[in-house]
Amino acid sequence: MIASITFHLIAENKSMTSSIKKNTILITGASGQLGNELQNLSIEYPAYNFLFTTRKELPIEDKKAINIFFEQHQIQYCINCAAYTAVDKAESEKEKAFLINAHAVGFLADACNKHQTKFIHISTDYVYDESIKRPLKEDDAVAPLSVYGLSKLKGEELVLSKNPSSLIIRTSWVYSAYGNNFVKTMLRLFKEKESINVINDQQGCPTYAADIASIIMEFINRMKVSEYSGIVNYCNEGITTWFDFAVAIKEFVNTSCNVLPIQTSQYPTPAKRPQYSVLDTSKVKKMLEIDIPFWKESLFQCMKML
């Protein structure tokens, strides 16, 4: 009799669990740095159904394809990790940069608005006015220096006009064990070169994509996620330069490669970078009541992955 009762209770619990409908989270740009980190993190959130899409499964520049996809799936949250990130190449591919970073983002925001889907979009520190020489707040002036920055700002404007309840997360100097980024470039150059020159007069905040993934899921996992809207800054704690960032990476590997500091003027690039783009993260820390890891701590975690 006891065994029978236990069996029926287990069966009843399984039936109740299977009848609970999971909220679905759509992630675009799944093959990129943040998309891959979200895939790693998704196993810690079994209460959600994740849809990871690349351009092949969901071409976000195609408005019709987006509408069809949203009609086929009931999506509660959409995290847009897709972006055109070739900063220098964007100077000669302006149309392509604006297509992916602006117009396609507008299509997604519009679809989310129609289907009552919470939209979370990732933006950049490159939208700010670099003349402000203190940690940049969300309501500070914007004045992008590059086509990339202009395209990301236009994307933000389209998001807020088409779907005001969206959440935009501005971040900076993103790196990961996945994709192309500064950390992986340095590791490659350490093997290939006897010495390398790295810019020492640009200040910012290196940010581990895994930490961005965690903060996104923290937003979603809160009961009052609908209250979180507008723009928030997120980056790892601490301020550094590209040179000091490179030196920190070198500390984790056995290399004889010399890292030498140079000025921006000694390394001209097609796109102009901000010399000061340190983000103020007090808003997100207050919203979520969190502490943010120091950038070197997160770099250590990434290096262990690599």
- One letter per element, helices H and strands E, the order comes to HEHEHEHEHEEHEEEHEEHEHH
How many domains? The number is 1
Separation, N- and C-terminal Cα atoms: 55 Å
Question: Main β-sheet: number of strands, strand sense, barrel status?
Answer: 6 strands, parallel
Polypeptide structure, described:
With 306 residues, the chain is α/β, with parallel strands linked by helices. The chain has a single domain, classed as Rossmann fold (3-Layer(aba) Sandwich), CATH 3.40.50.720. 41% of the residues lie in helices and 16% in strands. It is built from ten helices and twelve strands. The strands form four sheets. Strands 2-1-3-4-5-10 form a six-stranded parallel β-sheet, sandwiched between helices. A two-stranded parallel ribbon has the order 6-9. The longest helix is centred in the middle third of the chain and has 21 residues, at 94-114. The chain starts with a helix and ends with a helix. Mean pLDDT is 91; it is low at 1-19.
Brief account:
This protein has 306 residues and is of the alpha/beta class. It has ten helices and twelve strands. It has one domain (2-180, 206-237, 279-294): NAD(P)-binding Rossmann-like Domain (Rossmann fold), CATH 3.40.50.720.
